[in-house]
Amino acid sequence: MSDEKLSLLRQLEAVQIRKASELKLLHTALCFIRAFPDSAEHYRLAQHQLNRFEHRIRQINATERSKLCDTGIAGTSLYYAFSFDVATWLAKHAAGSLSIEWGGSEDPPGLDELLTHLLQPSEDEYFDSGRVTGREWIDMASVGSGRNDFDWLIAQLNDERLAGFWSQLYDTADLWLTWDLSRTPCSKSLNTLPVDTVVPRQTGMRMFSGSAKMEIMRPVESVLQTSRREGMKLIDVAVASLAVRHRETIHFNRANPNEVYLADVGEGVFVAVFGLRQRHRFPLETTMGYLIISNGVPIGYGGSSILFRQINTGVNIFDEYRGGEATFLWVQVMRVFHALAGCTRFIANPYQFGADNDEALGSGAFWLYYRLGYRPVLGNVRKLALREFTKIRNDRSYRSDIKTLRCLASCDMHLTLPGAKGSELFEERWLETSSMLATKILGEAAGRTRQAAVKCVTARLAKDIGIRDLDRWSAAERRGIAKIAPIVAAVAPSEWSAAEKRSLRDLLRAKGGNGEARYAQLLGQDVKFLAALRKACRRFD
Known about the structure:
By secondary structure, the protein is an alpha+beta fold. The protein has helices at residues 2-12, 20-35, 40-51, 53-58, 62-66, 84-93, 111-116, 124-128, 134-141, 149-156, 163-173, 212-217, 228-243, 250-253, 326-341, 358-363, 365-372, 379-394, 402-408, 430-444, 450-464, 475-489, 498-511, 517-525, 527-538; strands spanning 77-80, 98-100, 177-180, 223-225, 255-264, 269-276, 286-294, 297-307, 310-313, 316-317, 345-348, 375-376, 413-416. The radius of gyration is 26 Å and the shape is globular.
């Protein structure tokens, strides 16, 4: 079979294909072979053909080519309204290949508000006259820049100090863009990381069997923190892998190149985990994203929210790579997060397996989670799941109907490792309660402004728990403690023991550290803070 596949790859190189549907099928097959090759030669031939796929696209007529729009294939075009974060990334990494899609309207809603902030005083009268459209004004303002409309506009917004301001205005403008995927490494065809050695799949795909819980607890042999340079490369591959699929996530858009971990899970597959840049971190939980890479090819991704000893996460395998080893890889992702943060409880929200998600409902995603050891948190749903699973086990032809699947997808599912305790669970609704507690604490603090209130609460907390050198902390560490201080102050830690205060001091300093994985580990170990915050939140249930 492997030799036959190799022969077909060689034959296909010379075959001219004129239909878009057939080219799409070929592209999918080549992508899969490149990620999971039978041999180094299979990889080489698949990569060679993908490198030349744009040439194939140019050989088909315009009608067929139009059918490949929005596929992300090299040589095609893509149409999407990207966020400011991704738009600025594209302006840097794909300059000249994107333009504003005016779509018959030269004044998209919200564009005027954005452009108003770019005007010089001498330009106000003409712009406000109504005699010029947004498109016409951009054409006039950019005529001598040597840039197209999109690149010129983003260049005007390139001020890190005002990034939040420009981001809000740009996103409100809802600008749709056309992206020409010719001569760019960002397409599905070309977006890969260079690999020193190709790892062939001589024994095929890895199927998962056995206990997911035991596998998750098995130590990961290699989890290394990358250099900043390598971290930036991984972030670029991650952002591009989603952008060409009309997707994006803050886990990649705001990833910290100084906190990227690379975990080897065997057979040429790595899980890259990304922390957030310090100013984008959340007050209490740790939010991290991940990218699954096989032989340098991005094949799936996901995000996670780590809170004390629990983690809410899911997996998304890209279409080209489904039917491979998705279940095995999902278990490996959980294994990596267990190694990084010590998580003992894994949470799946109903959307991931069917609630308001017809694709997940129809695919029977609930049973994927169930077979791995996830169980519904509500007793009546748990009993229904057991009855249905017994029927499935006794009759292989049996399938749960849609009505039943909807009932099964009516609550969270948890997978708990041995040793996990119910007293360690922090209900996700308590994040809102914690936020409310912070507002109460800040409201009671002295200070005429919100900033003054934060400063007051932080200083009082530092005194209560014995931080005597806060002025010597780095600026990032001081921003970190200010972000979480109103929540911590709500549990009144002034009466804690010396050891408990010492643990809390270490935790608060880690919040603003270079990487947040250390904070996630310390938060999971701080049983006193968990118990106190649980108690404070439960008063409002």
